[in-house]
């Protein structure tokens, strides 16, 4: 696969640390391939092109993403973009017929994907840069395209991400291995850049995490059946309190909480 003239476009952005590892992004990938809006975008696309922006020093997570999204649509093409030529060279050494690598940043190398995954990228930028980065990526999307801007820890046990379309943010998702948290607000350190500085009293995201902590504490008795059952009881309590949680489409191993953006939009 050859990006062609797109390779001549000057990348927008700056090199990031490049930390990566096997299965680090497994929770977001599992969510992507079951989220109705994402699967609808992939299956309905004229050109099922997916971009993995800022994949890091090694192409591991790009190859994993390709394997997972091909379960939704077998003819998906994935392009990993990096702003560091040495990382692009490492990626191209592992390229396949369905996965390629190219030099690019927020301008997406002139490509027009139906899905962009940008994980652990904007976390390393000043918060004032987020709006411009989002806008640049949104402008490059194919019709009906989506962006996932997220952050996770080194082992992928604590993750948060925003889903966006051309018009703006759609939802916030918190996901974790509930065996490795003391309370839901432990995920605050992995909030996307647009929200991490908003986790203060008076802001909606702070209120969400506080409500989740209270529901988690109230579900302590369910812990005897395991942390996943306790998480499910936590979600049930939040729904009973009127929180607009997106319904779980299946029983999954990950502890996932997704709310409409309106629930956490900064004041």
UniProtKB/TrEMBL annotation:
Domain of life of the source: Bacteria
SUPFAM superfamilies in the record: S-adenosyl-L-methionine-dependent methyltransferases (SSF53335)
Name recorded for this polypeptide: Putative methylase
Species assigned in the record: Mycolicibacterium chitae
Alphabetical GO biological process terms: methylation
Renumbered residue ranges of the record's region Disordered: 1-23
RNA-binding listed as a keyword: no
InterPro entries, per the entry: SAM-dependent_MTases_sf
Sorted UniProt keywords: Methyltransferase, Transferase
GO molecular function terms noted in the UniProt entry: methyltransferase activity
């Amino acid at each position: 696969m050859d990006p062609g003239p797109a390779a001549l476009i000057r990348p927008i952005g700056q090199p990031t640390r490049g930390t990566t590892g096997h299965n680090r992004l497994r929770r977001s990938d599992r969510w992507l391939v079951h989220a109705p809006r994402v699967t609808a975008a992939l299956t309905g696309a004229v050109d099922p092109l997916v971009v993995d922006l800022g994949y890091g020093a090694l192409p591991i997570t790009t190859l994993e993403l390709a394997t997972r999204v091909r379960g939704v649509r077998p003819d998906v093409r994935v392009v990993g973009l990096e702003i560091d030529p040495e990382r692009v060279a490492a990626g191209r050494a592992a390229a396949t017929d369905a996965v390629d690598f190219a030099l690019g940043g927020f301008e997406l190398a002139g490509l027009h994907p139906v899905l962009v995954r940008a994980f652990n990228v904007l976390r390393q930028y000043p918060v004032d840069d987020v709006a411009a980065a989002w806008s640049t990526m949104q402008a490059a999307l194919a019709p009906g395209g989506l962006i996932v801007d997220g952050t996770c820890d080194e082992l992928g046990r604590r993750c948060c991400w925003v889903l966006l379309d051309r018009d703006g943010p759609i939802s916030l998702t918190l996901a974790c291995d509930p065996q490795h948290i003391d309370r839901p607000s432990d995920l605050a350190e992995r909030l996307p850049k647009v929200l991490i500085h908003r986790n203060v009293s008076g802001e909606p995201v702070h209120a969400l995490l506080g409500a989740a902590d209270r529901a988690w504490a109230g579900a302590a008795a369910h812990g005897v059946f395991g942390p996943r059952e306790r998480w499910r009881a936590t979600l049930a309590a939040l729904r009973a309190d009127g929180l607009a949680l997106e319904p779980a489409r299946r029983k999954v191993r990950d502890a996932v909480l997704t709310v409409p953006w309106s629930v956490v939009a900064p004041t």
